[in-house]
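Example record for the data management plan.
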Amino acid sequence: MAGPARPGKLVAAMASEMQAMLNEHEEKKGEGWKEDGHAELYRRLCEEVGELGELLMGATDANIAGQDNEFSCDVVRECTDVANFAMFIADVVLRARSHARKGLDGL
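Corresponding structural encoding:
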């Protein structure tokens, strides 16, 4: 019986899921999220958290025990959406901070 993933392996696995989803969306829509502000990205993050919550609140014991492969794939996909939107918000903040620092360096 496999135990919980070690944090390093879990981070790597999640990063792989996040990148795959970003690649999939980039092919369809580009990187439009880079044009959105933090408030819009937060709104979208909340939507994704809501979708994850609906999925989990409707789960059965069999779903949670991993007996339903479709369910587990759906959970991972929703978690990946949540993680990507959280990352987008962090990126907006970090880019703004970097831009502000560059402006101060010019003084």
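Summary line stored alongside the record: The CA atoms of residues 99 and 105 lie 10 Å apart.
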